Amino acid sequence: MKLIDKFNREINYLRLSVSEHCNYRCFYCRDGDHITKCKREDILSYEEIEKIIQIFAQLGVSKVRLTGGEPLLRRGIVKIAKLISRIDGINDVPLSTNAHLLAKFAKKLHQNGVNRVNISIDSLIPKRFNEITRGGDLSEVIKGIDMAIQIGMKPIKINVVVMRDVNDDEIESMLDFAIAKNIDVRFIETMPIGSVGIKALEQHISEKDILIKINKHLDNKLIPINARQTDGPAHNFKIQGTNSTVGIIAAVSQHFCQTCNRVRLTAKGDLILCLGQENAISLKDALRSGLTDDEIKHMILDAINKKPEKHEFNTVVDNISNRQMVEIGG
Ligand code: SAM
Fold it and tell me: I want to staple 324 with a disulfide (CB 3.0 to 4.6 A). Which of 37, 78, 150, 194 is the partner?
């Protein structure tokens, strides 16, 4: 069975937020005074996560990314990884993390099904990194990256949100860093999610401008890579003569929604159909009200049928001004 939406897009990828808590407070991701109010009973239990992923797997989802908040703060994260990676049909369980705790968890996660990792790192300058993350420690993140390399996670990708006059002078050093460590790098345009995301649009840099800098630095050594079915919206390039790739997610300057292959499930069990639209349904309520697997399957099919054609970042930013990225999982 496959999940195909009204616009003929196959949905084979679920981003699963396992915690709304984060140990970093990136200024473009959450309000400075944002407090995570989340009781244990508010979030999906291990059993509920397993049940929902089993249903998604029966519907053709094969990739489940663990995200957050910061997923490594979720108690039992290794157990969650193990449960998910053993589900029939799930063959890809990547992790998105700020890597502050990755040195501690990488090995156990890798042994329990997490095959690869995306690490968010917006600066290689300690003071700047600390300012962007409002308290983050770059040296811990580098330790996490090195541990992931050492134990053989592959691919390892660093994700950089590029912002004018904040870190746009580091595109070159990020490329050098990735090439030296034989890992991949991906540059992300700022997205107007939540009031801080909308504010961060003032520092927005387009894919076109990012590419100009990359090509200049690498002497035009980029070879386009054809996207695989579960790859989604990044434009990826092999960097000739290296073991690294570079990608760009042009969320705003290029409408990336035609290739959208994903939905999101929050830690509280809300199924979000589009990052840039408010609509969501509660799978937690469905489970807790005793619906059968078949009834939940039909709820999901019905929801996918209502997946919007595209985000409205460029037109109706107010639409999503109440969301905080930290609650959605990126
Ligand atoms: N804590 C994990 C991490 O740091 O990767 C997972 C959650 S975080 C919300 C996921 C991704 O969303 C990060 O790469 C972060 O940089 C990105 N993100 C958050 N707010 C964003 C925004 N307004 N525009 C673009 N990317 C954003």
Answer: 194
- Tens-place pLDDT, residues 219-233: 989 999 987 655 667
Strand order in the sheet with 270-272: 222-224, 235-239, 245-249, 184-189, 156-162, 117-120, 95-97, 63-67, 13-17, 262-265, 270-272, 280-282
- Whether residue 265 has pLDDT greater than 80: yes
Is the pTM higher than 0.85? The answer reads yes
* Mutate-to-test residue for ligand 1 from 95, 248, 325, highest number of ligand atoms within 8 A of CB: 325
For the chain, domain boundaries: 13-328
Task: Give, using CA atoms, the residue closest to atom 17 of ligand 1.
Answer: 330
For tokens 């009834």, name the residue: 295
What's the chain's average pLDDT? 92
Q: Whose CA is nearest to atom 5 of ligand 1?
A: 97
Q: How far apart are CA 265 and CA 15, in angstroms?
A: 6
Dihedral sign (CA 159, 329, 203, 165): negative
pLDDT top residue among 323 and 18:
18
User: Domain spanning 13-328: which CATH class is it, in words?
Assistant: alpha beta
Q: Which of 188, 252, 313 to mutate to test the pocket of ligand 1 (most atoms within 8 A of CB)?
A: 188
Using the mean position of ligand 1's atoms as its centre, give its distance from the Cα of residue 295 in Å.
33
Dihedrals phi, psi of 170, to nearest 5 degrees: -110, 5
Q: What is the pLDDT of residues 223-264, one digit of tens each?
A: 999 876 556 678 899 999 999 999 999 888 877 788 889 999
**Highest mean pLDDT: which of 193-207, 271-285, 295-309?**
295-309
Residue owning the nearest CA to atom 2 of ligand 1: 97
d(CA 27, CA 32): 7
